[in-house]
Amino acid sequence: MRVLFLPIAAAVAVAATPAAAKTISVSAATPDANEKLQEALILAEPGDVVELGAGVWKLTDGLSLDVDNVTLRGAGVKDGEGSILDFSGQQGAGEGLLVTSDDVLLTDFAVLNTRGDGIKSKDANRIVYHRLRVEWTAGPKETNGAYGIYPVESRDVLIDSVYVRGASDAGIYVGQSKNVVVRDSIAKENVAGIEIENCYDADVHDNIAVQNSGGILVFDLPSLPQQGGHNVRVFDNIVQDNSTPNFAPKGNIVASVPTGTGVLVMANRRVEIFGNALENNGTANVMIVGYRYPYDDAKYQPLPQDILVRDNVHGKAGFAPAFPGGAEMAAAMGGAIPPVLWDGAGSAVVNDDVGVLSLGLPDVSTPQSEAQPSPADLKGDAPATLPGVTLPASMEAKVQ
Amino acid sequence: MRRIAAALAAALLCASGAVAVPEAGPNQAAIDGDAMPRKLSEFGIFRAGTSEPVDALLGYTLHTPLFSDYAQKQRLIWVPPGKQATLSDDGHIDFPVGSMIVKSFGWPGQNGGRPVETRLLLHRADGWTALPYIWDADGKDATLAIAGRRVPVTFKAPDGAMHSIPYAVPNKNQCKECHSKAGEIVPIGPKAANINFENALDRHDFARFFAEPPISADPMPQWDDPASGTLERRARAYLDVNCGHCHNPQGSASNSGLFLRWTDPKGVSLGIGKRPTAAGRGSGGMEFAIKPGDPDHSFLIYRLESLDPGIAMPELGRSTVHREGVALLRQWIAQMPKDGH
Asked: Which top-level group of life is the source organism from (chain B) (predicted)?
């Protein structure tokens, strides 16, 4: 028995820590670079690093990675010196890069001008996006792809030090995931800068969301496999000048986000918004609303519940409210509505020392045209603070 | 003595050209091993130097096939000797380890009518593996293209239009995007509701492959044959085969909440009155995937009619619009009662 047991143990040890972890380098100048890079991503083994050479990669088809514990590393994100994956001539695939395996690190490269999404990861647990640039270089256009960085249906997601510009939906979009951190990143000139949708336990902090239509969105939508979004903290972010006219294709939920929105919570339970610098958002620095569309989903909960807004610094806001009736409300209130806007549905505590405007629409089925705007005092006892998100140490180690 | 007689008889038959000598099956070691052979010929699927399959494999078709740029397809099954595939309760066919499914794609007039590519699904001890092979210019063998490739293809569509497209041979990962169930590779095509053996049912060795014929009592109709089923059933079959492999709760599009299998209920999750989730430009400015009675405002149709990679569905395997398939779905949506969610 002992003799049999030993070789098996040895084999397991080898599998757990591959002795032959290697670096596969691919050059942008290789003929058939697209095929060679894809080949490297397929032939990589757990523990391997696929290294993208510096230069501009002209890619015609989407790339994909389906091997666990692989690092895809470039030479940087800057034009002229980094590894630039240029999808301007893309012919196929819904995204530039698709990751479907666990424990992947993506770092130090740029993805430009994809036809659909930039980088998507699905069912990719413990993924780390670090020092990346995803950009539509012509700036805001309705024909740009939807999401820049797009993890979905995953557990443990870290997005750290990325730059995303020009997405026609959300620059950074995390959907239907659990245990999520988005930090130290910049989202500029997207429709939504950062969007957390149908997620459980997420921290969004120390980011800069500027010149989007809406800065940071926390949504919960019906008829999806994971819903009932809750426990989201949005803190220590700079959210300003979100004034880019909404350029999302109509029909999408973000197309309804009023230009000039800072932080927007739609539905969800337990969201804390604190320590942010909120300024120059023409509709509102903070908006809290219910899901006000018809839906056919008995399990869906359309109200925002237990939302807490505290300790934020508010600059100018509410001077150009971009929702029906907004201009009239601003005019009636001396040129601007208060920095915090609530549709009147669900429950929220706002302890910031700024005004709150309620639209007086507690029932989400009441049309917005029947709004009864009035100042509201939402000061109150804050619920117990959320514990915050802790990621596995293996993920934090990758960005040290 | 009997063996010699049999061999002699076989030789005589062969010489007369009436019946081919029973050939050996494919190379079981290549199927079972963990290598990715560079040349397709190593599998022994086709007669040496040709794209004609050996007789030992079992051919089949589907009532409603996946659209792949109007490609004509040849489908083959191999089950290792001494084993049989079985039919599961939910209508899927369980193939034993050592099985292989072969699918070749070609167009009349392209490569002299020979296949352009052949894809293999190999059921190995650690699960299914997908390998794409592109046929060499001389048509004698095919070469592994693990990272996929675009191959220029020219063909005439049924409406008479000529198309020249950069046909996309999928890479190994893309094979899995469609052939994925909860992250594992699985066959899609062969299922009781859709498989059609035609004359192969009469083969003397049919029972060697299947313990019982894996045929449904309530099969899917043929999408383009009104005699085979109602408009609704044909549209649902088309959606199942072309979309349902990703659009199901365990597939690549699980996060969309849009579920398009034959067996999925008719409601929001089938797209009826369903707002876009992560469709991006795919919404085309429309509110619903399917707006009953109004195909022009149903973005499911919009996505099927688009060739833009940021809009088009399916995401893989389509460089042309399937006009006839879209027409079927348009007709189906048009006849839905406008208030009927």
From this structure: Bacteria
3-state secondary structure B117-172: EEEEEEEECCEEEEEEEEECCCCCCEEECCCCEEEEEEEECCCCCEEEEEEEECCH
For residue A390, the tally of other CB atoms under 10 A from its CB is 12
Please tell me whether residues A123 and A201 are part of one structural domain. Answer: no
What proportions of chain A, in percent to the nearest 5, are helix, strand and coil? 10, 40, 50
Q: What is the pTM of this model?
A: 0.89
Q: Both tokens of residue B108?
A: 């009349």
Q: How many domains does chain A have?
A: 2
Which residues lie across from A343 on neighbouring strands?
none
Domain identity same for A256 and A110:
no
Q: Tell me whether residues A249 and B283 touch, CB distance under 8 A.
A: yes
The two three-digit tokens of residue A187, written as one number: 């989202």
Those of residues 143-182 in B touching chain A at CB distance below 8 A are 146-150, 166, 168, 171-174, 176-177
* Residue B136: partners with Cβ closer than 8 Å, 6 or more residues away: B142, B143
Domain hosting A111: range is 21-135
In a domain, A340, yes or no: yes
Nearest CA in chain B to A153: B255
ipTM above 0.90, yes or no: no
CB neighbours (10 Å) of residue B129? 18
Residues A48 and A174 in one domain: no
Same domain, A171 and A263: yes
Judge whether residue A2 has pLDDT over 50. no
Q: What pLDDT digit, counting tens, does each position of A277-304 carry? A: 999 999 999 999 999 998 989 999 999 9
CA distance A185 to A235: 13
Residues A88 and A176 in one domain: no
Distance between CA atoms of B239 and B216, rounded to whole angstroms?
18
Residues A226 and A374 in one domain: yes
Asked if B17 and B11 touch (Cβ cutoff 8 Å), the reply is no
Residue A223 in any domain: the answer is: yes
Q: Kindly state whether residues A229 and A351 are assigned to the same domain.
A: yes
Task: Tell me, yes or no, whether A232 lies in a domain.
Answer: yes
